Amino acid sequence: MEPSHQARRRPGDAVDTDQLANELTERFRQVLSTKRMNELTSRSVQSRSSSPAPRDFGTPQPPAPALPPSYSSLRNIPLVPQAPQDARSLRFKNMLHSLSNMPMRWENPGLLDEALRVIPLEQIYNEAEEESQILQAEAESLGSGKKAAWGYQDCVVRALLRWFKRSFFTWVNNPPCSRCYSPTIGVGMAAPLPDEQARGANQVELYRCSVDQCGAFERYPRYNDAFVLLQTRRGRCGEWANCFSMLCRAVGSRVRWVWNSEDHVWTEVYSVHRKRWVHVDACEEAWDKPRLYTDGWGKKLSYCIAFSVDGAMDVTRRYVRDPAKHAIERNRAPEAVLLHIMDEIRAMRRSNMSKQDKFRLEGEDMRENRELRNQVISSIAHEVSKLSVDDILSGRSSRPPRPDPDTQKALESRTSGNSEWIRQRGEGGRGAPNQQHPRDPTR
Ligand SMILES: [Zn+2]
């Protein structure tokens, strides 16, 4: 070992965590790549012995080059962005471009003012003021130089989140019968009526009252316009994320709409105080719990893409901290193509900006990339810390997982007030009982 390493590792010394994380990552990578090499070699040996290639006259061939895996350890190797060529990649590109329009639709000053009239601003600002003072006092009690956990504007969004979930928006699977308030049963889709279409509903679900004597039909237009949702105040996660994100924008936060390929959407808000994007899920009243979907719900995720008025970013690494456990193969386009698409959307959003603004946003992108990379590194380091020396030497990972604080947090949030919602939501988010607005049974 080099002397510099020894000096750095003396017990009691402050450990250079970046250096340590890099070393651990490297070691872990070697374990993985040795394993992968072994697998590939044995596979290629098998295939060669079973069906020798015509030109293969028994001369020993070098092992096939290790292909990069579709996720995890090698994700951080820089790729050169590549324009989409095949039909599948082009479809993915078109889809991402159209998804990227969502935050643009909130940029309407008149409508944002309108939105502000719906929010109980005084209550929100009072709560935010109070919370930020408490956080400030907490920080001061910890000693000089300590920063409050969240800033005032973060507390504004936190108060908005509480109000939105507890007294404004309603989760609706099947809309209740508006004639007799009984539960309804889904009977398929209906063509949108002119006024539904005018208000932006391209899809209308049709339900029938479960009471035979009533039998009334109930329409459930899936409104896609955040400002219409201020009136309807109901929906599933799409409506929740759309309307809530727009309201975050209305109170002056920078906001992102995050699309996940496994059928969920949520919000990210930029914390000026913490200089980073914060995960917010209005349906769950979740603030900064990016491990909610994986550790909390046990979901596997492939793509999480964030869109804002000034950019687009693949933020999957924020939500999938343990790729071995929670990533699914990303097969909609080669990774280099996804990079190209992200660059393209960013360039489009920034085309009319000043040089300074572009420069500032590029710096922000770089910081975020570093943040996401470090998250993967620290979770890999965490994995490595669970391996024994024998495991590392033999390329195994067999230790039972140790709980880590973030997992605990995510699990706690699952068993608190949100368990009710998850229960109601059911497996596929369908077929669960109706949840009615307490103050308005017709909703
Ligand atoms: Zn009825």
TrEMBL record:
It holds the Pfam family Transglut_core. Residues 401-412 have a biased composition (Basic and acidic residues). Keywords: Metal-binding, Zinc. Gene3D superfamilies: 2.20.25.10, 3.10.620.30. The keyword Metal-binding applies. SUPFAM superfamilies: Cysteine proteinases. The keyword Translocase does not apply. Residues 42-51 have a biased composition (Low complexity). Residues 31-41 have a biased composition (Polar residues). One of its GO terms (biological process) is glycoprotein catabolic process. Residues 229-284 form the Transglutaminase-like domain. GO terms for molecular function: metal ion binding; peptide-N4-(N-acetyl-beta-glucosaminyl)asparagine amidase activity. Residues 1-71, 391-443 are annotated as: Disordered. One of its GO terms (cellular component) is cytosol. Belongs to the transglutaminase-like superfamily. PNGase family. This is Protein PNG1.
